[in-house]
Amino acid sequence: MNFLEERILKDGVVKEGNVLKVDSFLNHQMDVELFDKMGEEYAKRFAGKKITKILTIEASGIGIAAIVALHFHVPVVFAKKTQSINLDGEMYTAEVESFTHKNVNTIIVSKKFLGPDDHVLIIDDFLANGCALQGLIQIVKQAGAEVAGIGIAIEKGFQSGGRIIRNLGYQLESLAIVEEMDAATKTVRFREQ
Amino acid sequence: MNFLEERILKDGVVKEGNVLKVDSFLNHQMDVELFDKMGEEYAKRFAGKKITKILTIEASGIGIAAIVALHFHVPVVFAKKTQSINLDGEMYTAEVESFTHKNVNTIIVSKKFLGPDDHVLIIDDFLANGCALQGLIQIVKQAGAEVAGIGIAIEKGFQSGGRIIRNLGYQLESLAIVEEMDAATKTVRFREQ
After folding, report:
1. Are B88 and B94 in contact (CB under 8 A)?
2. Strands B172-182, B146-156: pairing kind
3. Mutate to test the interface with A, among B42, B57, B86, B98 (most CBs of A within 10 A)
4. Partner of A28 at 20 to 30 A CA spacing, among A144, A157, B14, B114?
């Protein structure tokens, strides 16, 4: 069991409806030393890959991506969820359905910050059905850039997102893959990696 | 002139309506090595202060706050702008007007992550009229915690936010204070610090 799986067992809370609350260390309060360890681990898993940029999506991906980027010495670009008046110029856009918020967002990335020469590591906190991730991949493709890899903190292995992405041939590295969880018994079982 | 002021002159873009675009390094694409220098600088400016937690607000404060937190060895809590179904339990809340988006958001922080024993360093990317900052201060007060200090990347010194906060007695450290800027001549003048 790795450091993230141990932390999930210690501080994660299993709720009804396959909700895993990790807001005490991952996506509301953030344990930055944990993120630093995650950066170290991704650096190992993507060693030898050419990476020029990290792409993530607001809001909860940003903290992880920023600290992970210190290990790769590249800038982070985060996709924004709404049009801002301060974001002029041309945009890459994709539609993303949110399971959490039960709505559809347009995500946008300025064309200034992703181009055909980029080799992109996509970082996000959660992977479930994969909608956010598919939107980010779509944006990388619009830029003519390469998806060099995908680093996820927690994957819900019982949902289809991870399988689809792996079937498409991407190197997807999830630090913890939840195989099943049970709100009644408060248990979480991880996939062996 | 410090490293952030130099970077603003090099890569910032002055637009009509007192808009300073720093999206190439601060709030869309993020230069994490720059954030690391900012963390170093805040560590100097707040040396000797007891700090147990960093508080910021989504989305563009998160990357800076996460990397700054590595220099203080404390967790980050970020205030969220909308109610999420994954955020149950009791919340601290405040109303914040957004100049950029021309709307009013409720910002929320779970009561689990801020309490009377906390000494809070507030971090954000921009300070203009101070609405976001006042909302964060209000949340710290609701928690019965202490505002140990406030670290801002770029303050618009010609708007009232900074003056009000300093008049209230807070230690507010802005790494760059824009005294005036001119879209016609593309110039920025900083306050001497």
Report:
1. no
2. parallel
3. B86
4. A157
Cβ distance A78 to B33 less than 8 Å, yes or no, reads: no
Which tens digits make up the pLDDT trace of A48-62?
A: 999 999 999 999 999
CATH number at residue A185: 3.40.50.2020
Digit-by-digit pLDDT tens for chain B (193 residues) are 999 999 999 999 999 999 999 999 999 999 999 999 999 999 999 999 999 999 999 999 999 999 999 999 999 999 998 755 455 558 999 988 876 667 788 899 999 999 999 999 999 999 999 999 999 999 999 999 999 999 999 999 999 999 999 999 999 999 999 999 999 999 999 999 9
In whole angstroms, what separates CA A22 from the centre of its chain? 14
Question: Are A32 and B87 inside 8 Å of each other by CB?
Answer: no
Contact B32 A85 (CB under 8 A): no
- Does residue A78 belong to the interface with chain B, where contact is any CB pair within 8 Å? yes
Q: Is the peptide bond before A47 cis (omega within 30 degrees of 0)?
A: no
For residue B68, give how far its alpha carbon lies from the nearest alpha carbon of chain A (Å): 9
Residue B26: give the domain boundaries.
3-190
> Which member of B15, B29, B80 has the closest CB to residue A77?
B29
A113 touches chain B (CB under 8 A): yes
ipTM of the complex: 0.94
DSSP E strands: which ranges in A19-171? 19-21, 29-30, 53-57, 76-79, 91-98, 103-110, 119-127, 146-156
- Kind of pairing, strands B53-57 and B76-79? parallel
Has residue A29 got a pLDDT over 60?
A: yes
Is the CB of residue A82 less than 8 Å away from at least one CB of chain B? yes
pTM, two decimals, is: 0.95
Inter-chain touch A70–B69, beta carbons under 8 Å: no
Task: List the single best residue of B15, B22, B23 to mutate versus A (max A Cβ within 10 A).
Answer: B23
d(C-alpha B57, C-alpha B155), whole Å:
16
pLDDT at B116: 98
β-strand partners of A156: A178
Q: Across the interface, which of B23, B58, B66 has its CB nearest the CB of A58? A: B58
